[in-house]
Amino acid sequence: MIVAFSVSPLGVGEDVGEYVADAVRVVRESGLPNRTDAMFTSVEGEWDEVMDVVKRAVAAVGARAGRVSLVLKADIRPGVTDGLTSKVETVERYLAP
């Protein structure tokens, strides 16, 4: 499964990069395949391990902010691995001249 999520503190002002870095650090230290872009962090693995990472990422932000917003989208496809790479490679093949 791939989960794309965004976790953000509320009520701390506009500069939230330091808080978001706390969440991304949790994801990167998990050892699961992951990718971060300007809007979301995607993480790939089994249901329980991915959801545990999301929960811990939210807790990391919540440790310094009284309120946290979470947006989550999941691609649940049993038996598929390396989806973070293969899905992008498929699109790139169609874009190639």
From TrEMBL:
Domain Thiamine-binding protein: 3-92
Top-level taxon: Bacteria
Pfam families: Thiamine_BP (PF01910)
NCBIfam families reported for this sequence: MTH1187 family thiamine-binding protein
Record-stated family: Belongs to the UPF0045 family.
Protein name: MTH1187 family thiamine-binding protein
